[in-house]
Please model this.
Amino acid sequence: MGLNGYVVLGSAVVGLLVGLTGAGGGALMTPMLILLFSVKPAAAISSDLVAAVVMRPVGAVVHLRKGTVNLRLVGLMTLGSAPMAFLGAWLLSLLGHTSSASQDVEIALGTALLAGAAAMVLRYIMDRKSGPRTAKVAEVRIRPVPTVAIGMICGLIVGMTSVGSGSLVIVLLLFAYPLLSARRLVGTDLTQAVPLTTAAALGALVFGHVEFRMTASIVVGSVPAVLIGSLLSSRAPDRYIRPAITFVIFVSGLKYVGVGTYPLGWAAGAVLVAGAGYWLAQARSSRTRAVPSRRPAAPASLRIRNEHPEQKAGFLMPPTEASTVLERLAPVPLDDLVLHESVEPARLHHVTRALNRSGVQKCPVLATPLSDGKYLVIDGAHRVVALRRLGAEMALAQIFDQGEYEITAWHHLTRIRRIPPRIEGLLTDRCTACEPGSSTGTCLAVAQTATQARHVCCLSADVGEAAAMLREFAAGCLAAGRIRRISPDDRSSSQPGRRHLRIVYRPWSFDRLREMVDRDLVLPAGITRFIAPGRVLGVDVPLPMLSCDRRTSLASRHIRQHVEKLSLRYYAEPVFIAE
Model:
């Protein structure tokens, strides 16, 4: 049984695209086999499914090691998808014995391809318009019935057409679990695809559609290419590759459902013209974007108009600070702002309503540069999420470099009768990490009552385990009663009362926070506290100026005018605002 060199080469191209973007596996491979190599539709679908069993575990293992897979979601989806995928393979075998088998299979395949193309477009729209999804795998409330239903629908489609194990599943999961982060959506999707394609492949083997020579050629070409594409994915021009894949899938779907040559040409041309127009509009707007990798360049000169001769320390900005302030203020794309903490639903609702009512972003988000050109939000997570919900694409940020701020932690005070059982197991009377000279583990917090102090100690140096323990502890404290956030120097509440619990959180270093966000993890809200002198308030950038990147220059001009008029509120000493 020899290999088909052309199929190996074509499979390598498809595998490279899949590794680069994570999209288009079955939706590209099956049409390629049918159109370019004249493989019968039923055999092409079955051979692609068997080859996918070898490709799918590669991405799943990576996400399992990173902890970005919700195994309960995978189990529920498999409960619905595995039997339906086997049923789909059986239905495909029934179609294969009819006189119009090829035509029926092609229509089913075309319908699935069109649904896949629509799903990719819908996912793009949802990713741009929705707020950041930061929920963790353990924080998602599972909905069994919709999850099993998603598995059943996608299993039947995949079993009959080999299309949809990625594109259709991830869009349906977006609807069912809108807060689950993008990496966890992809990780869960890739993992559930393993049992799904395995069941469909077993059905194909049982009902005898597989061409093993073709399958071996697909595996030899695609598996190494998927690995190479995965290694290059961080530098891949995804915004160009993914639309091209979507276009090919769309045109292939129209061809299979029976659209004639001339209507197909007109439809493809219309889509290309519309896409080119959109791309030109985006390219033109991107040229006006003026957000650098670290800070905006210092202005050559400022036309200072001191309209407030009586400058008050800590209130109105002194003229000597105008240049420094302008260097730090910039409209930053929301996609470049990385959150290190979760948000509180009640506070998020309040901030969103206040922004929508006022129509302006009054106070800048505080951010610090990361090594990859993005920014870590050190204050203003709720404003960032609220701006996303309101359809903005940028946020006004005040940028501080490392060394220009101090990282501390808040203290929490809650009224309870006794320590809840939920967090009792996380507390210890003796923390080895607190002992002098100890290099084992990390002390995350100290829970103080009127009579004792107990520790939340993580014996592992892994930031993922520490963050998970802290989230579990904070959730248990929040369930026990209302929490009041206080600063460490608040002496009015320095001694917890008989029915009060004071939680002293330990600060996190910048390196640990950076490692945490690189793994797509977050801390509970209200733990970290950043002290940065020289903060400004009252910039009042209208939200329409932040609605798209074409208006970056307008927002920058607005900021400059406020700085020149010295109308900003300036605080030389550290100041905190209540969102």
Q: What stands out?
A: Residues 101-129 form the longest helix (29 residues). The chain has three domains: 5-256, 319-405+532-571, 410-527. DSSP finds 18 helices and 17 strands in the chain.
